[in-house]
């Protein structure tokens, strides 16, 4: 079975939603994307976190698992954090 079909089922089980094509491409592509331009609210966070986890732990190609970075650093702008905590 192709890795993109397996990833689609895996992501649907994790999120309850079918992935967008850019999420599948990120997780299953030969090269890890360095820049992604996607409008707000379409699942960039799920793409990065779950796509990275898929590539690192579950991708059927061992070479892709080995070349995916071991650590994921996720940063948010300070303004976003302040707006979410302001009452």
Query: How do the helices and strands follow one another from N- to C-terminus?
Result: HHHHH
Overall average residue pLDDT: 87
Number of helices: 5
Overall shape: it is globular
Number of strands: 0
The low-confidence runs, each spanning 5 or more residues with pLDDT under 50, are none
Number of domains: 1
Q: Biggest β-sheet, characterized? A: none
Structural class: mainly alpha
Instruction: Kindly report the oligomeric state of this protein.
Output: single chain
Give the end-to-end Cα distance, rounded to a whole number of Å. 50 Å
Beta fraction? under 5%
- Level of helix content? 55-70%
Instruction: State Rg.
Output: 14 Å
